[in-house]
Design brief:
Layout (H helix, E strand, L loop, with lengths): L9 E6 L4 E4 L2 E3 L6 H12 L3 E6 L11 E4 L3 H11 L4 E4 L6 E3 L20 E3 L3 H6 L8 E8 L3 H12 L3 E6 L11 E2 L1 E5 L2 E4 L3 E2 H18 L2
Parallel strand pairs: 1-4, 1-6, 4-5, 6-9, 9-10
Antiparallel strand pairs: 2-3, 7-8, 10-12, 11-14, 12-13
Bound molecules: cytidine-5'-monophosphate.
Cytidine-5'-monophosphate binds next to helix 3 and strand 9.
Length: 223
């Protein structure tokens, strides 16, 4: 119907940063607020989608009508996403840490006089967007990612869409001064096989509404 264009649709959304432990009290993280991903999950749920939000640590409240799985690390996020399949649409808005400490120390790393600072060896995290895009039979019909870029925005996003194997990339300009990362507004370009659409600057809330409408139209068209 008009009020629930996504009724019967299962949606999976990732949001927020991940925390990668160095030891029991320290971690590597990033400045993602989770605002965009949470808004997308809320917008999909409002349109009737059965929505699972897999979220890293954030101060954003759990959106109404959304099942929320709280995780900390990229590996936990990937496991929760796999468990969340099957889904018709996946939106990867999380700022997943590219690397994690290869070995998280079991005890707090102690500082001592004369002791050299510890070296933290890093290892690569799973790429959740690429993993969902390559999920074979279990692949969501529509897989959407974000590309935060500071230069050659559309060029890099177009390459990223192909490299990740996803259907759409929302390219956003996170250059210093745009206030995008951690801010309220977003300036995005929708990159798909059909080409590039420039969206006007709008709030992350409005980006979520617009994207949810586009998802509903696409799933209807392709069904
Ligand atoms: O490679 P890059 O981090 O620039 O790609 C960004 C997109 O990939 C975002 O949609 C992000 O959620 C997703 N991503 C992911 N898992 C990773 C790294 C990025 O899902 N390990």
């Amino acid at each position: 119907g008009l009020s629930a264009p996504l009724a019967g649709i299962r949606a999976l959304v990732t949001s927020g940063p991940t925390h990668e432990p160095i030891d029991p009290v320290r971690f590597i993280a990033n400045r993602s607020s989770g605002r965009q991903g949470h808004a997308i999950a809320a917008a999909l749920a409002r349109r009737g989608a059965t929505t699972l939000l897999v979220s890293g640590p954030t101060v954003e409240p759990d959106p109404a009508g959304v099942e929320v799985k709280h995780i900390e690390t990229a590996e936990e996020m990937w496991a929760a996403c796999r468990n969340g399949l099957p889904a018709d649409v996946a939106v990867c808005a999380a700022a997943v840490a590219d690397w994690r400490p290869a070995l998280a120390a079991g005890e707090k790393i102690k500082k001592a006089k004369g002791k050299a600072p510890p070296a933290i060896a890093l290892t690569e995290n799973p790429d959740i967007l690429a993993g969902l895009s390559a999920a074979g039979n279990g692949r969501p019909r529509l897989v959407i990612g974000f590309a935060a870029e500071t230069e050659k925005l559309v060029e890099n996003a177009t390459a990223k869409r192909l490299a990740k194997g996803c259907d759409w990339i929302l390219a956003n300009d996170v250059s210093p001064g745009t206030g995008t990362f951690g801010g309220l507004d977003n300036l995005v370009h929708l990159v798909s096989a059909a080409g590039v659409e420039d969206w006007p600057r709008m709030s992350k809330q409005q980006v979520a509404e617009e994207l949810a409408d586009r998802i509903a139209a696409e799933l209807k068209r392709a069904s």
